[in-house]
Amino acid sequence: MCRKVESVSNRESNGWTRRSLLRGMAIAGVAPLLPGTAGAAPGSSGVAGGGFSLVQDGAAVDLFVDQVDDPAVARAAGDLAADLERVSGVRPRLRRTTSGMSTTAVLIGTIGASPVIDRLIAEGRLDTAEVVGRWEASVTQVVERPLPGVDRALVIAGSDRRGTVYGSYDISERIGVSPWYWWADVPVERRTTVSVEAGPVKRREPSVRYRGIFINDERNLTTWSNRTQERDKNIGPETYKKIFELLLRLKANYLWPAMHPYTDYFNKYPENARLADEYGIVIGSSHPEALLRNGVHEWQPWAEAHRNPDGSLPEYDYTVNPRVIADYWRARARQNAAYESCWTIGMRGLHDSGFQTRYAKTVPEKVAVMNRIITDQRRILAEEVKATAGPQIFIPYKEVLDLYNAGVQVPEDVTLVWPDDNHGNMRQMPTSAEQRRPGGNGLYYHISYWGTPKSYLWLDTTQIGKIWQELRRAHEHRVDRLWVINVGDIKSQEAGLSFCMDLAWNIHRWGPENIEDFLVEWTGRQFGRQHGNEIATIRTEFYRLAAERRPEFVDRGTISLVHHGDEAGERMAAYRNLLERTKALGRKLPAAYQNAFYELVEYPVHGAYLMNLKYYWADCNALASRQGRGAGVNRYADLCEAAHAEEEALTRRYNLEIAGGKWNGVVNPYPTDIPQAPGRPTVVRVTPQNTSGLGVATEGNETGIARPLSFSSYPRDRRFVDVFNTGFRSFTWRASTSHPWVQVNSTSDTVTDQVRVWVSIDWSRAPVGRNEARVTFTGAGKTVSVPLRVSNDGEEARRRATGFVEAHGYVSIDAAHFHGRVARSGADWRVVRGLGRRRAAVEAVPSTATPITDGVTTRSPELTYRILFAGAGTFPVTVFRLPSLDARGNRRLAIALDNGPAVVLSGQAVATGRWDDAWARNVTEGVEKLTGSLTVTRPGEHVLRLLMVDPGMVVDQIVVNTGGLPATYLAPPESYQPEAADREVR
To answer: Residue 713 to residues 736, 765, 814, 866: CA-CA distances in angstroms?
Structure first.
């Protein structure tokens, strides 16, 4: 039963136009929008002082970097000069000596590597407390008369070379140059006068030492690079220069390069590694690429050149050819020894296949082989790279995690890099002993993925709240040595990547109450503060809809067309409303912002809408066919194909028109060689005939009218009836009601394919009690009478209700709408905004709390929900929890009613990697539905209790089925409760 999608959903009303105080401050300009500036957040500090002019009256200050300072510092200073030119049209001189400098200048240098900086420190004129001796820290401060002939200077001093680099880029961002100025075409506002606050500003050590990305499943990026950057290469030095610069502007320092067969491997071009070092980027490699070796490209030539004595090719199996493989690794260690690198130890198969061990069959045998591999690799690094052979990492990915848990011995100075399940759920956290290891812990996290059970490579669809919840949980377990984020092709992941790097720089910047404010700030940087709130609202709703179902996961028959007011139609109405809002805002933006707006806002929203729309129409087409419709079947087929054609045109515009074709090939939902987004769904058609016939299908019924329309005086919702034509010739229909208090929005019309009629109740006239009524439809010589069941407890009962009220055979609760909260045993529940399928979810915290398995009802932190039940009985309860894992533990919570016993519900704790099991369903749907039952001994008000068993569990919705609730993908609309209209999410 399908309706026009232009109407706006009433299910989500005004709740999320309300913002926290912090967001309001940001919009008003009270809270600074740029990280690292004075007062911006914990982790930076500063005292406001007089401004420092960088460009004034057509003249720019000189920039100085000492000749002996690191090349990365001089190169970043060159970018600062270019940024000042982007803003002002005037390019400063970059000086390498102090003679002949301008009277005001910017002095950029690294402590211990810049004599000018060291002298200022020795003279007590530069405050480097909490900077000197730290990792990537810096201070920016105005110093009077720092050099002969220089009256005043803005000094940027870093604790190490990257600290200095980040200090320089911080100035760039403060003058209005976005890190995404090139990668997302964010315009730079021109000004004739450019100045910054005098400071001092200190940027303390980042929360995570190594922060970076993995370019992976990079078919689109490779296509784009070959077409627009280097036609003789498939991602080469010119492309990596752009990537290195972006990383540094995002305050990242680490990269796993692209590695697939269609991409040139990193060391194919020696200048790649040299350039990375000159920029200050640490190069590492992913889990199948031990010691910086790209097995996809490099093993076969090596094997050809190092055949076995019998002429056969060596296998990439350490139980078969250990010497050849060790020499293969040694050659790369020797080649890259001079550069700051991160060395992956351990082994998997070529091209991310499983660990191959022909002569080790059992798990203990495989563990022994892995231990031998690590020992040999460590010897190679000690001999070839020597004292600089670090950091070293071990990545227990997929089956290697099982081997690690079974006894692989990883040296204490090696960083353990914990992977997620490829869908944003960390598989396990380090134990207290692992947290104390000198090598520390890291993580490998996906916001883009190719593989089982479904891939998501097209759009940035992982909720900011989900990223925060999992990465913050990891950091609480001291996972702070290395974070590497799988970003696929980079493009389309701009917001998610920015948020990950923001968290890695300062984990305390964003909390559960203000996560959404990141989008206000971030979009304000790209499009101006006056638009930050509106674009953030659009992005937040975009993420929420993706949390219901990612656009890449859309398929046939998932979301109901017939239940709960047409779930699928409601979803499409929400998308249509979002798209209209997006386009309306885009029309207000100046021409200079149109490219960036299309890339960062309009294309993701419009693309996701069309991907959902074509599958919606395909489902409507199939339902129309089952219902025996005529013209409607073909109409929905046409609409489906038109939506697919529009989606293709949308992507062509991105690739061929936006920014003058700069991004040709970078976005494609259907790339070759890798799993694709859903394509064109199949549709059916019927042969037109010059006939007509009345068909009626009501809400709750795939076909016909067998399930009566249900009405309750509590939610006072409406129900639909689809009046359709079984042929192709138009006819006129009429509707009449059995009682005057039954209302229809239309009593007659002419129908060619379908008309949706809405039925409601005039509650001021309806009699109290349980009543039955009918709406009768007549047309084309046929009459159909639709049954109604109306439950009216009266206005007084509605007003007296104090909690969620049962109606239509269920109670549906948004978990964040609790009535009471009790903290116990050092743990509590908290609300996390912008998380889950609704507007917020609740999380059991801290994630490091001890599980509570005994005395749950008295010792566990709890949330309480008042419910008014109409009857008694034992009822199924479904708790919608967001997937989270613990391969060495459990994922449990509990529910109880009143003072009754706790019912413990256990969730999936292990990522199986299968495509057809509970884990696969959970990550595809974005929730796990935990089921249990509770006994209601009498009608009336009761208290449902949500209790923590394992920490870190996140609950989104709770549904009690009191009889007749149909099975649907989405939870039903939230049940009526009197205070809901005025409630702000706690």
So the answer is: 22, 12, 21, 19
Which alpha helices (DSSP H) does 431-559 contain, by range?
432-435, 464-476, 494-505, 515-527, 529-548
How much is the pLDDT for 676? 78
Q: How many domains does the chain have?
A: 5
Q: Which two tokens stand for residue 4?
A: 């026009």
Provide the CATH number for the domain around residue 816: 2.60.120.1620
In a domain, 333, yes or no: yes
Helices and strands (H and E) in the chain: how many: 23, 39
Give 320's contacts (C-beta < 8 A, 6+ positions apart): 314, 358, 359
Contact 497, 180 (CB under 8 A): no
Say if residues 822 and 857 touch (Cβ distance below 8 Å).
no
End-to-end CA distance of the chain: 36
pTM: 0.94
Residue with tokens 């090939």: 665
Distance separating alpha carbons of residues 736 and 747, to the nearest angstrom: 7
Last residue of a domain, one of 631, 657, 683: 657
State which of 657, 686, 714 marks the end of a domain: 657
Task: Based on the fold, state whether residues 198 and 225 are members of the same structural domain.
Answer: no
Residue showing tokens 């970018």? 79
Are 154 and 258 within one domain? Answer: no
Q: Vertex 853, ends 851 and 855: CA angle to 5°? A: 120
Token pair in block for residue 613? 């729309």
Longest dimension (CA), the chain: 101
- Name the residue among 306, 184, 302, 160 with its Cα closest to residue 242: 184
- Residue-level pLDDT at 675: 78
Decide if 151 is inside a domain: yes
Q: How do residues 149-205 score in pLDDT, each as one tens digit?
A: 999 999 999 999 999 999 999 999 999 999 999 999 999 999 999 999 987 999 999
Q: Are residue 725 and residue 811 in the same domain, yes or no?
A: no
Q: Is 69 exposed, middle or buried (0-12, 13-18, 19+ CB in 10 A)?
A: buried
Q: Domain of 113: which CATH number?
A: 3.30.379.10
User: Which residue(s) pair with 811 in the sheet?
Assistant: 960
Q: What is the 3-state secondary structure (H, E, C) of 283-352?
A: ECCCCCCHHHCCHHHHHHHHHHHCCCCCCCCCCCCCCCCHHHHHHHHHHHHHHCCCCCECEEECCCCHHH
Q: Domain residues for 558?
A: 532-657
Kind plus residue range of the DSSP H or E element containing 171? helix 161-174
